[in-house]
């Protein structure tokens, strides 16, 4: 072999040796990088969110180590690169999973907020309606307590006012009677009853001799009786549960008698009210009404502390 040929062979051998040595060094470096990626805090935190992807990355790293042990540095380098890419994918999948969880939490929070908003809106509407109702009641109460003076009118209007005054006087008598049932010592009851008696006397005189109408006095008398009843019931507000229980029993009695469709039990300023229509046939009660009143009497007897007021309309 000539000196020139020997030199060429030596250069080729040196080049091959450099390539082989460089490949081994590169594979070792990429394996080290893959090991660092495997034990990094990012990968540890991501394993729980992307366990399958983490297992695949570990498999790539295992293959890289096996290839290095077998002396196949090229394969080891390729597997190490794939392991690095797989660990990066694990981190990405974990971030995606966390983003989905945060989105789901945000959606739940939004749904809860919308539910609360709807509840508050409903409560607001109910409150506004209650305020409007109370405002109406306040205006009515003010008008009842201080009714505007009625100016004289033509004969037909005066007759209508006389009928209205009689109706107001009857309502006042019922309210005062209800107040007396609640408490005979209700504040203002005695004065209210005197006003009712005076109105009735004036109505009798007006009906006989054509005296001026007394609708204003009748309105004031009714307002006085309503005030007395309101005060009496306010003093006995602790009995509200008893009234609720009585209303429930009366409703049940109506249902048992088969009259819960045409007879309704309600509550007003007097307490529990049951209105029975078409109760009479001739001079006596109808069989259905007789049975119903007996059932109501049984309920009333079970509550001896509750007064009973019977009102007949003809």
Write a structural description.
The structure is a single chain. The protein has 314 residues and is mainly α. Helices cover 76% and strands 4% of the residues. The chain folds into 3 domains: 13-102; 144-235, no CATH class; 238-301, no CATH class. The chain has 9 helices and 4 strands. The protein has a two-stranded antiparallel sheet with strand order 1-2. A two-stranded antiparallel ribbon has the order 3-4. Helix 1 packs parallel to helix 4 and helix 3 (51-69) packs antiparallel against helix 4. The longest helix is centred in the middle third of the chain and has 73 residues, at 73-145. The termini are far apart. The model is unreliable at 1-23 (pLDDT under 50).
Present the secondary structure layout.
Elements: H1 3-39, H2 41-47, H3 51-69, H4 73-145, H5 155-182, H6 189-209, H7 215-235, H8 240-256, E1 265-268, E2 271-274, E3 280-281, E4 284-285, H9 287-301
Antiparallel strand pairs: 1-2, 3-4
Helix pairs in contact: 1-3, 1-4, 2-4, 3-4, 5-6, 5-7, 6-7, 8-9
**Strands side by side in the biggest sheet:** 1-2
Using DSSP, what is the number of strands? Answer: 4
Report the C-alpha radius of gyration, rounded.
Answer: 48 Å
How many domains comprise the coordinates? 3
Helix/strand structural class: mainly alpha
Tell me the major beta sheet. Answer: 2 strands, antiparallel
